[in-house]
Amino acid sequence: MTPEMLATEISKCIGIAMSQGVGLDAIILTMSADQRMTKEHMHTILYLRKLFGEEMMKYVVLLFTRKDRLDEDDTSLDEYLSDVPQFLADLLDECDCRAIAFNNKTKDVEVKERQTAELLQIIEKLKTVNGDKPSLAT
After folding, report:
1. CA-to-CA distance for 101 and 62, rounded, in angstroms?
2. pLDDT above 60 (res 104)
3. How far apart are CA 77 and CA 23, in angstroms?
4. Percent of the chain topping pLDDT 70
5. Where does 43-96 show beta strands of DSSP type E?
6. Which run of H or of E encompasses 59?
7. What is the pTM of this model?
8. CA dist., res. 134 & res. 136, Å (int)
9. How far is CA 41 from CA 87, 105, 117, in A?
10. Is the pLDDT of residue 113 over 90?
């Protein structure tokens, strides 16, 4: 996806959020737990920071997919995050270590509901921390 295409898609999302309320309560950056951090990942995150501004980090939650792979390796998310490239470690620090892992291959409805509930709990806590002031508020 080109930067122009990304900007267009993000603009659409922001337009929807603004039409439904006053802004975004969270910005969820999704990455795979079984991929290495590439230059493309880093450039995309830097581009998003330019687009949203440095305030964006107050709203970021990192969501790692492929928790099933972590489970197969008998590795917790905290263990995985303790040995990541410096760019990702810095990103984690800047978003106050708001990170969650999803097993996106599970067929277990309870697991899906638990994961969703945990993400929503993180977002609710984030809203409280940010004074219930959405990002990009008008």
Report:
1. 8
2. yes
3. 30
4. 94
5. 60-65
6. none
7. 0.85
8. 6
9. 10, 23, 27
10. yes
For domain 24-129, the CATH superfamily is P-loop containing nucleotide triphosphate hydrolases (3.40.50.300)
Q: Residues in the chain, how many?
A: 138
The one-letter code for the residue type at 109 is: V
Q: Is 31 helix (H, G, I), strand (E, B) or coil?
A: strand
How far apart are the C-alpha atoms of 58 and 45, rounded to whole Å? 14
Domain residue extents for the chain: 24-129
pLDDT number for residue 136? 56
pLDDT band at 138 (very low <50, low <70, confident <90, very high): very low
pLDDT at residue 9, as a whole number: 81
Q: What angle do CA 9, 91, 129 make, to 5 degrees?
A: 85
How far is Cα of residue 127 from the mean position of the Cα atoms in its chain? 15
Residues 129-136: contacts with CB under 8 Å, at least 24 apart: 129/58, 130/58, 130/59, 134/17, 134/21, 134/22, 134/23, 134/24, 134/25, 135/23, 135/24, 135/25, 135/27, 135/52, 135/55, 135/56, 135/58, 135/59, 136/14, 136/17, 136/18, 136/23, 136/24, 136/52
Of residues 60, 97, 58, the one with CA closest to residue 81: 97
